[in-house]
Structure formats: C-alpha cells, structure tokens
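S.,

As promised, the FE2/S2 (inorganic) cluster run. Input:
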Amino acid sequence: MEESGKKIEIEICLGTTCFVMGASKLQELETLIPPKYRNLVEVKANTCMDLCKNATYMKAPFVKIDGELITEANVEKVLNVLERKING
Ligand code: FES
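Predicted complex:
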C-alpha cells in the first residue's frame, strides 16, 4: 500500500460520448470510494480521451486508473480495479 506521495490517479472521461454511455453515473464515484482509500486516490475528469473516435466507442464510458484503461466502466468495476491496485 502506498503511504504518501504519489496517489493513484482515477481519470474519468466525461466527454459527450462517455457521458451519454453512462459516465454521468461515475460522477459520484468520488463519494463512493471507501473512506480508508480516499486519501490514496485522486479523481480527475477528462473532457475526451479520444477513444470514442473509432470503433472502441462501443465500449464507452472509459476510465483510466494509473493509465490502465477500464472499458464500459461503472462504479463497481472501477472500485474493483482500485482495490486490486491498493492491495496488490
Ligand atoms: S468522450 Fe470519452 S473518450 Fe471521447
């Protein structure tokens, strides 16, 4: 587990495609992160990751955790990956 310094970065795409495909629900992600993990992560919004420009748009919405792409992201998936990253 990371003690201090670098935080795990969660990047949520809130661009139009991702937003209509479900990212609107991810906006509340920050409040759903378990309290014990909150100071280990940093949640950011992206306006478009350029992943919706080709066939991959079918897999929107997109979230990246420390650069690892999560497709068809939802709160549960994101929290699962986060847990894995924190607990190894
Ligand atoms: S709107 Fe999310 S990748 Fe473009």
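Residues 13, 15-18, 48-52, 60, 62 surround FE2/S2 (inorganic) cluster (CB under 6 Å). The longest helix spans residues 75-87.

- D.
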